[in-house]
Amino acid sequence: MNRFTISEQFFIDQASASASGGLSTVLNRLTLVARMLASEIMRAGFVGKLGYTGTSNVQGEEVRELDVISNDTTLQVFENMPMVAAIASEEMEDMYVFPDGENGKYLIAIDPLDGSGNVDIAGQMGTIFGIYKRPEVGKPVTVEEFYQSGRNIVAAGYVLYGPCTMMVYSAGGPVNGFTLDRSIGTFFLTHPDLKIPEGVGAYSVNEANETKWDDKTQAMVETFRRQQADVGKRSARYVGALVGDFHRTLLKGGIYMYPGEVEKPNGKLRLLYENAPLAFICERAGGAASNGVMPILDIVPTGLHQRTPLFLGSKGDVEEAVRRMGKA
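^ that's the sequence the OP posted. Answer follows.
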C-alpha cells in the first residue's frame, strides 16, 4: 500500500495553510527530534540513563537524565535554523533565543519529554509541541511574544514513544497520525483525519488526588466512576503520562482530567507547551478542551510556565464534566 510520508504531508499542509515557507522545515526538524529521542529512550537502560541528575527544574520536579538529554537534543536540532527565533521548554526557566533569532518567524513551545517517570518501567512517554508565528520579525525576541492564546497556534502535535513511535499533528486542518518505520527511519501516514469518538471511551484522572479536590470536583469524578454520567458508561484508565492518556482518548473517546486542587487551584499542567497544543489537536479532531471555566485555547498566557486545570477529550464528556462542576 502506498502511504504518504510525513514530509510529503508537511508540504501539503504548508500549501493549504498558505504558509510562506519554513513551516514544513520546522516540522521536519521535529521529526528528527522524535527519531533521536526514540533511539535514546530505547537504549537508556543499556547505557545507564534511567536515573535522576540530583537537580530540580523550574517546576520544582526532580530531573532525570533523559529530561536533560531531550531538552539538549531539541536545542541542538534547531540551532542555526534561521526560521526559528526561540524556544520555550518545560526544562528551562527562560526562553532560549537562537543566534540571529530576531530574524526568525516562528516560536516553539515544547515539553521535550512528557512522562519521563515512566522510563524505568518501560512505560509510555512523549513530546508535546506548539508552533506560533512571531508578531513581528526583525526585532529582538521578547518573552512576551510567547504570550499568545492557543488560537494563534499554526501547528501543534505530539510524539508518542511506546511499542511504536507515532507523531500526531495538525497544521490547522485535519489531525493526522504517522508511525515511524524504524527500519528506514521514516514516518508514514497510518491514521488519517482522526476524529475523536463520542459516547464511548474511558475517563482518565489521578483519583489518588481526590482528597485535594473541592466537593464539586469530587462529585463530578464520582459520577464517571460510578458509570452514571449522562454521556454513558466510562471505564477508568490512567497511565501517568499526559501524551499516553490523551492518545488513547483521541482514538477511543472519553475524557482526560487534571483538575485544580483546593490548595493548588491552577493544577499541575502547563498551558503553553502542554495544554494549549493538545487542546489545538483535540478541537480539530472534533473534541473539546477546557480549564473548567473557559476553552483552553482562549486563555492568554501571562508566564512561560503558567498552569491551568485541564479537561480534554470528547465534546460531550468535557461539557458534562464542566457542567457538573458548575452545579451548586
